[in-house]
């Protein structure tokens, strides 16, 4: 950074650094005085608290004395004066205690101040009790006076503890202030010495590195240039100060001297080069003559061979175009056939899908038929069970009819025994017997009908079981058919996909064949152009050979 500053600015930097050092010292001094001032405030605050604590003690002693006088002189006038004196002293006490609380907001002080307030309140209550006992002429006045004196002593003790703490704090603050003042004095003197040394050292450093050393280097470089040493490097050209300008001027001078030296050497080398060039020119002309003749002969031969090759390529290109046309026609026909097959396979796939749908519907119908047959078989079995129940009931009715017939027979016998009196009963017994016989015949008919129904029901159940078995077989066969149709459908889709790919392939083949036709056409045109170019190359080679011969002849004459 110093390299970019001019000498005047470097001097300003030195002055500025010293000025900043003075400002720093002044700031440090001001801060030190502020700290000392704060310490003095603490000392004053502690002294004020100590003074107030001493006055609190005086207030307590005064209140204790007033109370003692009131205990001795109990006249109304004395008691009134004592009460007013206590109020005055207590008011002063509370004001001073509030001031102490304001000056000492820390927690430790609050504890001591609260203790003083508690003791004073206890003393105030005992004083009030003493005055009341004095007015009443109570015998407990002496006891209350002693209690109040004890409370006053406790209050004075609390004040004494705070007073002692404030004295100790004030002494500690004084010691700390003295120590801080001594330390600040030492730091101020030390920092002043350090700043002075740093300022002098920094000024010397700036003068040495920014002025003296670069100037000495410039002088040495001037001596070297004067002795003719142009290989030296000029230092300090990147500097922005006056020494950088001197270094730039020296660099320009060295470069100019080098340039002059190079011009002299170049002139000497140019003369030598002209002599060598004249000798070399003769040798090169002879060599070029031989090489040019051989090269032109090779070009002529190559152009002839190129013409023959281009003619052959032209014939091959025509043959390739003819064959590509034939292949393109075949590829187009194959593409048409593939499209036809793809359409047929698509129709086959649609038919197989319809068959698959019909087979699925048949499977669903078979399943529904099986369910209906199962429901019918269940109903027929319920009917067979009902017929069996009817047979049981009919048997019960038959038994009842037999019993009724026996009862009617017994009634007829009893009526015969009764004689004339039992004729009416005999008629009833006959009717009952007739009804019993009719019931028996009816039950026999019902039994035959029920047995016939049971037989038919069993036949129906057997037939339904056979139908269900047949439907299950049909459902299994339909499932196999559906699976086969599904496989056939998948195979058809695969065939369709392959045919589609084949169609794409034939399209690509057609496109490639067309590309081959175009390439063959281009090859034919290219071969024609190559043949024509080879003919022109032969003519140009012959012309160039004559020109080279003329040029070499002219060179040799000169």
Automatic annotation (TrEMBL):
Question: Which InterPro entries does the record cross-reference, listed alphabetically?
Answer: Chemotax_Me-accpt_rcpt, HAMP_dom, MCPsignal_dom
Recorded hits in Gene3D superfamilies, A to Z, give: 6.10.340.10, Methyl-accepting chemotaxis protein (1.10.287.950)
Q: What is this protein called?
A: Putative Methyl-accepting chemotaxis protein
Signal peptide start-end: none
GO CC, sorted alphabetically, is: membrane
The molecular function terms of the Gene Ontology recorded here are: transmembrane signaling receptor activity
Q: Is Membrane there in the keyword field?
A: yes
- Keyword vocabulary terms for this entry: Membrane, Transducer, Transmembrane, Transmembrane helix
Q: Which spans are transmembrane here?
A: 12-36, 185-207
Q: Where is the HAMP domain?
A: 209-262
Q: Which residues form the Methyl-accepting transducer domain?
A: 295-538
Q: Which CDD domains match?
A: HAMP
- Family statement drawn from the similarity comment of this UniProt entry: Belongs to the methyl-accepting chemotaxis (MCP) protein family.
